[in-house]
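We emphasize that the prediction below concerns an isolated chain of 289 residues; any contacts that depend on oligomerization or on bound cofactors are therefore not represented. The input was used exactly as deposited, without trimming of termini.
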Amino acid sequence: MATKKHKQVAGLILKLALSILGIVWAYSRINIQQLSDILYQSQYHWLAPALIFYVLSKIISSFRLTTFFHQTGVKISQIEGMRLYWVGMFYNLFLPGGIGGDAYKVVLLNKYRKAKWKSTTGIVLYDRLTGLLALVMICGLFIPILFPHIWVIGIFISLFALLSGFLFTYFFFKKLMQTFVRATILSILLQSIQIGAAWMLFMALHSYPVDAGYLFLFLVSSVVSVLPISIGGIGAREFAFVWGASYLNVSSEICVAFALLFFLITACASLPGGFVREKNIFHESDIDE
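Result of the prediction step, given as a token string:
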């Protein structure tokens, strides 16, 4: 037990260190005064619709996860699934300790629905993978726009991501094969809605018309932030933005300003999950005492 705790603490320290390094590296390569001017002159009325779009994407994401649970026999309603998802969002962003939001979902489902650990853990990880592959697919579709001379590579990346998801589902999650098409469509839809939210945030930063490069970097930074290498994606997103900005000839300062605003709406959207009591996630009459 002690060894497990030590590993958890070491992992948290490593993630914290990587987050700090990412932030320090990113901010050391931008003009801080220019960043301040961009933030000061921003049109903050765009934040409200961006937040609405982001929340909508998360509602769709919770619906997708609940659908996966249904296919594996876990009894949970869409409302319960949404509450569970929001609590997980809060834990992932604000309490990134030894037990993250994804693991907490598994713990609660086992406690209140007697769901099997192995099955629910697999579903939660599969849900993450589905979202990641959708991001990669859309990234591939942006390549022909930004780099017309290598459009074939972009199409290949998108098709490879789609085929990988299909094969992974077929060989490891056959129970979910009948929902594969629906899940893929939902994943693309929610990521597209998040792109809409990103577009609004860039509009807030006076970066109109919004360069496709900014949206592409948003997708790339989202892929990087999903990886378990930082705390809540902090540092990893800034690193991806600033590193990519130099190659796409877009403003690093606007990218970092965007990362700050995106974290703000993410935090606002996740905060309600902290007010949901554990026993209120599920219907009281269905809770196993």
